[in-house]
Amino acid sequence: MDEQLSDEQRQLRDSAAKLCGDLGGAKRARVLRDAGQDIDAVAWQAICDAGWLGMLVPEARGGLGLGAVELYIVLEQTGRHAVMTPLLEMVASAWLLGAVDVPQPLLPAVLDGSPIIVPALDADGWAFRKASPGIARVPAFASSARDFLIESDGRLGLLPRPQATKIAPNVDGSHAATIAVSESAQIIAGGDEAARLAARLGDLLALGSAIELLGLCESALALALDHVKTRKQFGQPLGSFQALQHRLADNFVDLELNRSLLHRISLAWDEGTAVPAMIAAAKARSVRVTTEIMRNALQLHGAIGYTDEHDIGMLWKHALAQSARYGNELTQAARFARLTADEV
Amino acid sequence: MPWDIASLFSDDAPADRDFRAEVRDWVADNCPRELCHRRDRIQPPELKPWHRRLFERGWIAPHWPKEYGGMGASLTQQIILFEEIVRIGAPTPYPHGLNFIGPIIIAAGTEAQKARFLPGILSGDATWCQGYSEAGAGSDLASLQTRAVLDGDHFAVNGHKMWTTNGHYADWMFMLVRTDPEAKPRHAGITMLLVDMRAPGITVRPIQTLKGDAEFAEEFFDDVRVPQENMLGGLNQGWRIAGMVLGGERFTTGHPRYALVYLQQARELAKRTGAWDDAGFRDRLTALEIDLLAFLAYYRHAAKLHGTKAAPLSSAPVIKIAGGTLAQRSADLLVQAAGGEGASVDDILLASSAVNVASELFEMRRLSVGSGTTEINRNIIAKRVLGLPDAER
Fold first, then answer.
1. pTM (whole model) above 0.90
2. Is B369 helix (H, G, I), strand (E, B) or coil?
3. pLDDT at B219 over 90
């Protein structure tokens, strides 16, 4: 993809790679998990300082006025280095606050990174299975969020995090929660506007999480390649055995296709030609391929892969959390099937 | 799929869109209808008038330089021509002259060879075949043993070639022969010859394929005399010369059209047979349509980069592996959609087409074998792209 980037996009990629490489990593994610923290405060400050949160907000509303391709560039890096921050969620929340008809006084503060607002989705049209009415799922950053962005009765609103929010940790140390959608939400959009924005928001989150998975898979594949090139058994590097070479080649092929698909959809998003079925396909395939690559990468590591100490397991755990949020493989595949069912 | 394959993720610039419209209209007016949507293999003699019409329109060799009678077209235009021809179910010209040996003659031939061979390739008057594979030399092509010995101003050729598409129709064969049996590495002892198939000493025997048609032939060479002037490139330069085949070829052989057509037919057929109501069928269809979308994005991306410095080494094997696997699995699903008719020799009639599901199933097996097996392509990715080591000896 890199060959299609403009000079500005290249600079963005390089600075994102440096920031994420310096501050992120599987080891850092493990430290945060063990400390019970669902956000990397140091990385978060650096990301807020970089101004990325306003990526999809028009300049007229105080944002950077960039597009999904720039989001792709940054999320590939946060994924690659398993950076534990709500970048995607806040970019999406800021986009929404900047897209509603009535300008939101909260927007400038959100663009600076505080308060943290995390989408909590549950209803039809958001790409996820319909949960019980009145219940919303917060997939991550439930401890750090001040407000949750919810949809209720066809309206979009901000719900202050209830005092009694019960945190349910994910395997990667991120904090999920199930909350009751109460009357105290501040309504920010209703009617057709709410339905339209909610659908777009769901697509944006699904696309973003798929891009983070791409980065995670790149790291897992790189770890596996390093391992099989150096580890010797039967007097040979593991990587010289054709059975293993072919599995890695298949992983590479699968990932190449996803890279092109996600980049294409990002371009289409910016051109206004992205349709929901494309995004459903992209998330479904990203999760499918992630599962396959993580499984193979762990297997190739042998016993060391089955330890908490090794990075490959931490990458898989973070990938598992990214896969589960905003529509997993089968949820999105079923959605794709519904969206394309009437075509012959 | 709710999208038109020709426009989805398209890179067509405005000029390309005009060209596409022009080609579409012309093909509709000029392609013989009896050649469209055929499930039998159209043999070279029947294809010649269509080849000639494309030649006369100036569109037969989009990828050749203008000075040699081509269009000097961009890869995008080449793909447009291809897509608009296959859109109405029309056959594309055979690639052996136009895509394989033609560009090699242009790159490595003498002026006399260019003058002698290129016009017949363009007009379609000369049918060509490729003499590479042998009974003992498939994936390991460098082990080929058909022998050529220089005797005065002629080579004497002895040996056997196999799996030669159109071997029994060809006027000419471009062949790789062993001219130095002692060479190390083995591929340093191979030469490319252009051989008149009517020369004395050549015996051709057709081979019936799994699909049931006579696509291939095998050829026996018994002291066949080949003039030295028909050597292409230098002595023992054949391996290097053969590598000059243009990479653009992969964008027609690897085009996503097979999967697209099969999956559309599978949808239609499944609604009739009831397979549509089976969750298992729908799941598999969904997975393949998602793969098709991803492959299409990759294909367009690779086409855009083709010929630029940024074109990755991996795009040829990725297209080969991903496209081949996708087409095969789509044909497999088409058989499932047919239910109890899945093994029938007869065509199944659909609303706008007819399909022979078993024939398609078997035809698709060629994609993972011909022009480099899937396994060889995995080796290429493993070693040249991922940098995985050879076994230590």
1. yes
2. coil
3. yes
